[in-house]
Amino acid sequence: METGQVALANGGHPYPIVLTREGELREIEMPSLPLGMALPFGVTHNVAELGVEMATGIPLIFYSDGITDIQDEDGEFYGDERFLLS
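The chain above was modelled as a monomer; its predicted structure follows.
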């Protein structure tokens, strides 16, 4: 049986994006430090996984900062805003 449950972990990439039924792009903020990073002094717990329930047919977008950090011949970055608007 499909539940729509997705388990996400912070790997240091940009946050995943959901395209809502209303056509809005929303980031899913990860509540933890990226996996493998040392915890700051005094922090004893890192929530490594986040459970999200996805509705059927709603796209979940994963991408690398390699897309947004690419530069053209003039040194201009592609950027987050341009990526999200395309």
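The domain at 1-86 is CATH 3.60.40.10 (Phosphatase 2c; domain 1).
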